[in-house]
């Protein structure tokens, strides 16, 4: 892969894999695929969902609410999740079989108690930047390939924001798995297609 293309590995963490607090179906399957994929890229960025224990996206923080319900917050609609990826916890760790020693940056997102952050670029208020756009631009990156968990949430939102910030974006589908909540996977692919995100079967 050329020096202008970076691989963004989204949230391959224990809590999103088998036995985790918010396990994505077949999530573990991406690990060897991502490991092999990453060897083709000189620049790899790895993200971690990384929340305080009282994070606003946790159903446990809202009386009478259950996981996977949707509520309206100041910044818009928010799906309530089981407690997951609590900063410093075992579940927040990267999958133990993930092997990307040359990863240049590990970016943690969702640390703001009051705002969720599916995207690696912008928090859910759609205004607060993580700084990733500046990091990539300053390194001369123009194309971003994405993989990881989950296709329809953090991968899709990151891909859409990559386009928003002017990068070419491509989702490597075999290296992703989805949650697929109430049609969310189809909706995510439609939104990505409309935004000019490419869908790749392989690299
Ligand atoms: Zn989260």
Automatic annotation (TrEMBL):
UniProt enzyme class? hydrolase
| Gene3D superfamilies from the UniProt entry | Isochorismatase-like (3.40.50.850)
Any one Gene Ontology molecular-function term assigned to this protein's record: nicotinamidase activity
Give all residue intervals belonging to the Isochorismatase-like domain: 5-197
Which EC numbers characterise this protein's activity in its record?
A: 3.5.1.19
Organism source for this protein?
A: Acidiphilium iwatense
Keyword presence, Hydrolase: yes
Protein name according to UniProt: nicotinamidase
Pathway assigned to this chain's UniProt record: Cofactor biosynthesis; nicotinate biosynthesis; nicotinate from nicotinamide: step 1/1
